[in-house]
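Second attempt. The first submission of Prostaglandin-H2 D-isomerase had a stray character pasted in from the spreadsheet, which I only caught after the job came back as garbage. Lesson logged: always re-copy from the clean sequence file. Corrected sequence (185 aa) follows.
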Amino acid sequence: MHATLLGFLGLALLGALHAQDSIPVQINFQQDKLTGRWYSIGLASNSNWFKEKKHLMKMCTTVITSTADGNLEVTSTYPKGDQCEKRNSLYTKTEQPGRFSYTSPRWGSKHDIRVVETNYEEYALVATQISKSTGSSTMVLLYSRTKELSPERLERFTQFSREQGLMDEEILILPQTDKCMADAA
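This time the job returned cleanly.
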């Protein structure tokens, strides 16, 4: 019985690792072209915080800069009530270009971040696998250089999110806002 349980857990872990490895990374990723200002157009997640806060979420801005040691400094500015809140994150590069890691100092969660696809001038599709002591979750972000994207790009985001196992109610095209957009420069 004990061996069967261990075998089952091993297979479950192997399946989870395999699923994580099946998330692609942009071919010939060019980090310097990813830097600059982006708008968060879409967000999909199966995490509890997303389900609880989804109805409050709006478009935000994200500024990406490279650090001297090749990591990414990611600063997001978003409306929260009557205020603009900034969140800074340091994405640490891995051996695979276009793949980064991040550990949340607030929650202790570990993030495996992958730039799935981008043309650098219009959009970027980013997938994150989040692991913490209470379980794991998936998050997909759609960034744009402008506040609007073509229906084809929005559909690609939705399709990719579904491919990651996310349900339609876990996929959100963020409502546009002018609030906090100027503060993010």
